Amino acid sequence: TKAAKTKAAKVEAPVAEVAASPPDSAADLARLRELMAELAAAQGETPLILPSVDRNAVAAVVQDWTGIPTGRMLSSQTEKALKLAATLAERVVGQDHAMEMIAKRVQTSRAGLGAPEKPVGVFLLCGPSGVGKTETALALAETLYGGEQNLISINMSEFQEAHTVSTLKGAPPGYVGYGKGGILTEAVRRKPYSVILLDEVEKAHPDVHEIFFQVFDKGMMDDSEGRRIDFKNTLILLTSNVGSEVIMDRTGNGTVRAGLDDLDTALRGPLLKVFPAAFLGRVVTIPYYPLSDAMIEAITRHQFAKIARRLRATSDAELVIGDGVMDLVKARCTEIESGGRMIDAILTNTLLPELSRGVLNRSLEGEKMTKVTVWASAEGFTYTFE
Q1: Which long-range contacts (CB under 8 A, 24 or more apart) does 352-356 make?
Q2: Model pLDDT, residue 47
Q3: CA–CA distance from 332 to each of 152, 249, 260, 291, 300 (Å)?
Q4: Alpha-carbon distance 299 to 51, whole Å?
Q5: Residue 160: other Cβ atoms inside 10 A
Q6: Which residue has the higher pLDDT, 95 or 176?
C-alpha cells in the first residue's frame, strides 16, 4: 500500500546512512540492527524493495526474464536433487521405488554426468488408474521447476489418427493453422525447463509415437517452421494403463507386494503388443503398484491435511478428524480400479460441500470459528463447529 511504501522509504534512508559509514562502535551496529528490524516490519513477508542485492534477488530477476526456475542458480537446487525421492514420496504414496528411480536419473543429470544431448529423463509409468502417475508429474514440476505451472500435460488419446502429428509439431506451410506453432513444440519453446506429461500414450497412433524418437535420442524436435526446439532441460513422463491387469493379478489387487523384476518381466509382453521395441528401448519403464488399505489411508490423511491448510488460511480455524472418519472413507472406496481418484471424489462430492455450507453459514452470521471437527456416523459425515 501507499502507506507501507512511505513507511519503508522513511526507514531505508537511515539504514543506508548507517550502512555506508564504518561501524565505529557497538552502538552503530545495534542501531543498524534496529533499523533493519523496522524495515522488515514495514515491508512484511513480501517486501517491495530488497535491502540488498544478493544472489536470491539476481536469481529472481533472471527467472522473470528467462523463465528458468530460480533454484537452478542456487545451491538449494542441489539439495533438492539429493532429497528428491523423499520429497516426492510425501505426495506420491506407496510408490517409493518409482520415486527412487526418477530421483537417481535427476541426480545424474544435476551432477553433469548424464548424456548432455538427451532430456533429463524419459519414463514410462505403467499401472492402474489413480495410483499416482499424474501426481508424480505434478510433484516433479513443483519440486524441480518451481511450480505446477511448469507442467506441460497432453492427453495422447486425442492423437489416434496419423494426421494429428501436425497438431503436436504445427501445421505445415499452406495448411490451416500454419504459423501458430504445435501444441507440444510451442509449449516447450516457451517453457524449456518443464515436466512433460504424455497421458495415456498407448492410445496415440504409431506415427505419433515415432516422432518422439528424435526427442528421446537427441533432445530436440523441429517444428513446422523449421525451428529447432530444445528438450534437453525437460523431464518427460509417459503414462499408460497397458499391463494393468498383469499388475493387478501379480499383486493380488494390491494385497501382495510383488518384486519389481517379476513385474518388469510380466509387463514386457503386453507392452510389446502396443509399442515397438525401438520405443520401449528409449524409455525407462516403471510399474506402479495398486493401492492397498494402508496406502488409501495415507492418501486420505494427505488430502485432509490439504483441506486443513486451506481452512486455516481462509477461516483461521483448525480442522480435526474424529474417530471412524478414515474407516468410513476406506469403506466407500469400493472401486479399486479408481484408486486415489475415488478418495478425491468422496471428499469433493460429499464432505467438502457439507463442510463449506457450515463455514458459510457461520460467516454470514458473523460467528467466529476456531475449530471444526469431522465425525463419522451411520448417515455419513457430521460436523461440529467451535
Answers
A1: 352/307, 354/381, 354/383, 355/307, 355/381, 355/383
A2: 66
A3: 33, 23, 30, 14, 12
A4: 42
A5: 11
A6: 95
For 202-248, the pLDDT digits (tens) are 999 999 999 999 999 999 999 888 899 999 999 999 999 999 999 98
Tens of pLDDT along 90-146? 999 889 999 999 999 999 998 889 999 999 999 999 998 888 999 999 999 999 888
User: What average pLDDT does range 63-75 have in this prediction?
Assistant: 61
CB 264 within 8 A of CB 287: yes
Strand ranges for 127-245 from DSSP E = 151-155, 195-199, 220-222, 228-230, 235-240
Q: What is the spatial distance between Cα 334 and Cα 97, in angstroms, rounded to a whole number?
A: 26
pTM of the model: 0.78
Q: State the greatest distance between any 2 C-alpha atoms of the chain, in Å, as a whole number.
A: 79
Q: Which of 24-28, 183-187, 236-240, 348-352 has the lowest mean pLDDT?
A: 24-28
- Measured CA to CA, the distance from residue 210 to residue 279 in angstroms comes to 8
- Determine contact, residues 68/62, Cβ cutoff 8 Å: yes
Q: What grid cell was written down for 218?
A: 537427441
36: amino acid identity, one letter: M
Task: Rounding to the nearest 10 degrees, give the CA dihedral for residues 312, 318, 322, 325.
Answer: 0
Distance, CA of 118 to CA of 216 (rounded, Å): 6
Q: Exposed, middle or buried by CB within 10 Å (0-12, 13-18, 19+), for 114?
A: middle
- What is d(CA 82, CA 103) in angstroms, rounded to the nearest whole number? 8
Amino acid identity of residue 248, one-letter, is M
Flag whether pLDDT at 373 surpasses 60: yes
